[in-house]
Amino acid sequence: FRIIYHWDLEGRMLSIIAMTCKKSIPSIAMIHPASDWIEREIHDYFAVQFTGRELPPLLLNPEDSPGIFLDHPRTEHEKGKGKEK
Questions:
Q1: Nearest-angstrom CA–CA distance, 19 and 30
Q2: 26: Cβ–Cβ under 8 A, 6 or more apart, which residues?
Q3: Which of 21, 22, 39 is nearest to 31 (CA)?
Q4: pLDDT tens by residue, the chain, 85 residues
Q5: pLDDT of residue 41
Q6: What three-state secondary structure class fits 5?
Q7: What is the pTM of this model?
Q8: Does some domain include residue 54?
Q9: I want to staple 7 with a disulfide (CB 3.0 to 4.6 A). Which of 14, 66, 73, 80 is the partner?
Q10: Which of 19, 23, 77 is nearest to 50 (CA)?
Q11: Which pLDDT belongs to residue 52?
C-alpha cells in the first residue's frame, strides 16, 4: 500500500508518501488528530491496520467487514490480477 499525506504548511503543500508491503502502517493520529477519520475510512475500505491506535467501530455499513473494496477491479489490477482494458 502507498498512503500519501498532504498538509498545507504556511501556504506551501507538503506531501509525504508512506509505503508498506504489509497490511499495516503506523498511525499518525496521536500527532495529527485530524487523521483519525481518514485512517478509519482507509481501514474500512481496504482493511489496512494502523498500528499504535485502537480503531472504533466501522464508519461504513457495520454489516460490511473491513476491506469491502479489496475485490474492487482497481485493487485487483494493482495486485496483478486485473484485466488490462
A1: 19
A2: 50, 51, 52
A3: 39
A4: 788 888 888 889 989 898 888 888 999 989 888 888 888 888 888 888 899 988 777 777 666 665 666 664 444 444 544 444 4
A5: 86
A6: strand
A7: 0.64
A8: yes
A9: 14
A10: 23
A11: 92
Is the Cβ–Cβ distance between 29 and 36 less than 8 Å? Answer: yes
Taking the mean position of all CA atoms in its chain, how far away is CA 6? Answer: 13
In this prediction, residue 67 carries a pLDDT of 66
Element (DSSP H or E) covering residue 14: strand 12-19
Enter the C-alpha cell of residue 59: 464508519
Q: How many residues does the chain have?
A: 85
Among 64, 66, 24, which residue's Cα sits nearest to residue 45?
Answer: 66
Number of domains in the chain: 1
In a domain, 85, yes or no: no
C-alpha cell, 47: 482493511
